[in-house]
């Protein structure tokens, strides 16, 4: 990886919530090794590329903590029929689009296989750094059980059924085995479905899924590998059960109340809202053949997400940044910034997508920050995101430079 120096930038300090002129940054290999301010220019030895930022905003790369890059169409029935090679090629372009929107790191929330990770490592996919969850864990009839209702079900004593997206596992021992299988295959964390969802047909939104003991089994297995489990949940009862079992984050949480928010805050459990996915399902779901049964359930959560942000914020819950987009709607990823402005300040939104998500991923000194030792993941932005976070919306049109792990993914600096 070629070394690199950025000069004449406005440094976005998200900790202080301010922009400072005259900043420079030096990269060696994949890491930041020096950050200078007050107009002090860094020395550029022979062979080091120097980019004059021209006063643009220098900020950390963005982090999306809830993506489904391997769900490549909203027509979920068609998704189940697509060949793995077809899905892999579509996934490549979805991931590369994320990086071009400034997302240098993402957390897979289910469905991404090890082959994509290998392709990223070999440079065959020019996408973001990925924290992979692999298959999600779901109970029978839970959010993740996409099997149709059978007139004559053939029940197997093994208690686990597996498809490309999930392990449908019932009982503590089955959940433990399923979690171990994903961790063995290199999953960075484990996801459990603790309540009903929109995309699956047979589970109501207000359904509580998995017992506390089952969720705790996944938490314990993840902890044994020095990582964590996180949970999909909407309603207070499901949220509180998952929090008691020890999950690190609650995904979505649209129907959270003051009591469940308080429980999350006390446990140090993060919330990862995903407003844009409901916005997109409402806007284009029918045209893109999103399942009719799922469209009917959308109303339960569509308009609750913004209120959930306010409840969580008031309780002191750490709020991360996620999108949860499916298939053809992935290009709307950065609309999440705009949707949150109704409740959160620009600074709060920026922290969610950088330092808070980095803490959630247990990488607070390596991601979401610009300091020596951190991964060289950063952006040069035309505009001031503190004044208008909307400059990060769209397809990266206002991003003049994107660097991921010291490698330049985009350079439009004049």
UniProtKB/TrEMBL annotation:
Domain of life: Bacteria
Pfam families in alphabetical order: Amidohydro_1
InterPro entries: Amidohydro-rel (IPR006680), Metal-dep_hydrolase_composite (IPR011059), Metal_Hydrolase (IPR032466), Metallo-dep_Hydrolase (IPR051781), OTAase-like (IPR057744)
SUPFAM superfamilies in the cross-refs: Composite domain of metallo-dependent hydrolases (SSF51338), Metallo-dependent hydrolases (SSF51556)
Entry annotated with the keyword DNA damage: no
Gene Ontology MF term list: hydrolase activity, acting on carbon-nitrogen (but not peptide) bonds
Coiled coil (UniProt feature): none
NAD is among the record's keywords: no
Gene3D superfamilies: Metal-dependent hydrolases, Urease, subunit C, domain 1
UniProt domain Amidohydrolase-related: residue ranges: 57-405
Keywords, comma-separated and alphabetical: Hydrolase
Name of the molecule in the record: Amidohydrolase family protein
């Amino acid at each position: 990886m070629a070394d690199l120096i950025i000069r004449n930038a406005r440094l976005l300090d998200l900790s202080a919530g301010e922009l400072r002129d005259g900043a420079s940054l030096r990269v060696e290999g994949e890491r930041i090794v020096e950050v200078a301010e007050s107009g002090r220019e860094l020395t550029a030895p022979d062979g080091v590329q120097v980019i004059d930022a021209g006063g643009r905003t220098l900020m950390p790369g963005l982090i999306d903590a809830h993506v489904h890059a391997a769900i490549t169409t909203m027509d979920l029935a068609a998704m189940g029929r697509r060949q793995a090679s077809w899905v892999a090629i579509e996934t490549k372009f979805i991931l590369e689009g994320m990086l071009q929107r400034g997302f240098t790191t993402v957390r897979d929330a289910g469905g991404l296989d090890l082959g994509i990770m290998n392709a990223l490592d070999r440079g065959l996919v020019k996408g973001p750094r990925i924290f992979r969850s692999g298959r999600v864990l779901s109970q029978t009839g839970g959010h993740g059980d996409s099997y149709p209702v059978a007139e004559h079900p053939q029940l197997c004593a093994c208690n686990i059924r597996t498809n490309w997206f999930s392990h449908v596992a019932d009982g503590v021992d089955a959940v433990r085995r399923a979690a171990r299988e994903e961790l063995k295959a290199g999953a960075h964390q484990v996801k459990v479905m603790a309540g009903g969802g929109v995309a699956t047909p047979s589970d109501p939104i207000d359904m509580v899924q998995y017992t506390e003991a089952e969720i705790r089994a996944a938490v314990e297995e993840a902890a044994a590998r020095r990582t964590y489990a996180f949970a999909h949940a909407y309603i207070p009862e499901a949220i509180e059960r998952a929090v008691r079992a020890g999950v690190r984050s609650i995904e979505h949480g649209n129907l959270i109340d003051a009591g469940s928010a308080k429980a999350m805050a006390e446990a140090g459990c993060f919330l990862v809202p995903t407003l844009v996915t409901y916005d997109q399902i409402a806007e284009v779901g029918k045209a893109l053949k999103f399942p009719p049964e799922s469209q009917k359930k959308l109303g339960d959560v569509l308009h609750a997400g913004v209120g959930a942000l306010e409840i969580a914020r008031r309780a002191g819950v750490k709020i991360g940044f996620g999108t949860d987009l499916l298939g053809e709607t992935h290009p709307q990823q950065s609309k999440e910034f705009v949707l949150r402005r109704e409740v959160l300040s620009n600074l709060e939104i920026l922290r969610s997508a950088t330092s808070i998500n980095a803490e959630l991923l247990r990488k607070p000194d390596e991601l979401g920050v610009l300091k020596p030792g951190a991964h060289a993941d950063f952006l040069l932005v035309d505009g001031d995101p503190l004044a208008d976070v909307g400059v990060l919306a769209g397809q990266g049109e206002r991003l003049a430079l994107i660097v991921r792990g010291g490698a330049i993914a985009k350079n439009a600096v004049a």
